[in-house]
Amino acid sequence: MLKNNKFIVLTLITILICLGIYTSYVVYKKNTAINESTKNIFADSTDNAVASYTDLNGNVISLEQYLGKILIVTSWASWSPFSKDDLISLSEIASSQDSNKVVFIAINRKETREQAQRYMNILPELNSVIVALDPTDHFYISMGGYAMPETIIYNQKGDVVNHIRGVINRDELKSTIDKILK
Fold first, then answer.
1. Residue 49, Cα to own-chain centre: how many angstroms?
2. Own/partner pairs for 41-49, CB < 8 Å, 24+ apart?
3. Contacts for 49-54 with beta carbons within 8 Å, 24 or more apart?
4. E strand or H helix at 129, and its extent?
5. What is the tens place of the pLDDT at every residue in 129-150?
6. Are 169 and 177 in contact (CB under 8 A)?
7. How do residues 31-87 score in pLDDT, each as one tens digit?
8. Cβ(93)–Cβ(117) below 8 Å
């Protein structure tokens, strides 16, 4: 009888250990999946090099250069009726943040530099927001976009913290930034 009890206890302990290992594996895989999806957004789909974009002056911008800072990236297009309000809100929030800790980038979706510039000319100056061009629409496709505009918030390690579909809510964005900074 004592032998049977020891066998049952050892069996239960073995099962618990196996469940613990399995749970750790699932959690690890989930975290790795988030990191892999982030890497896909930062990488260029053609050769897995770091994707780069250009600003309106033709200067190269890479999202990877902002690792170590909170990165707020919004996709926009001149044809979207919601982009104007979103970009203005983004600029107002960006102006109130420390640019050494938080970077704001507005990536245009697949429009020419001229189209994007014409649209920027009708907006108030977007202080503290880097305007980037993405002629291949890599960013929007990589993030699984389906609304317009869309905003992704990355922490300092490049992990996605929040994905906002549609026009940003100023309070939600400020709150998310504050939580990451703490």
1. 18
2. 41/139, 41/142, 41/143, 41/152, 42/158, 44/138, 45/136, 45/138, 45/141, 45/142
3. 51/138, 51/139, 51/142, 53/107, 53/132, 53/133, 53/134, 53/139, 54/113, 54/132, 54/133
4. strand 129-134
5. 999 999 989 899 888 899 999 9
6. no
7. 444 455 555 555 544 554 556 799 999 999 888 888 899 999 999 999 999 999 999
8. no
Residues 83 and 85: their CA atoms lie apart, in Å, by 6
pTM value? 0.75
Which H or E run contains 162? strand 160-165
Beta strand pairing call for 129-134 and 52-55: antiparallel
Give the whole-angstrom CA distance, residue 124 versus residue 127: 9
Q: Name the β-bridge partners of 150.
A: 75, 165
Start-to-end Cα distance in the chain: 57
Cα-based distances in Å from 141 to 42, 47, 96: 12, 16, 30
The reply to whether omega before 135 is within 30° of 0 (cis) is no
- 69: tokens are 């800072």
Beta bridge partners of 50: 43
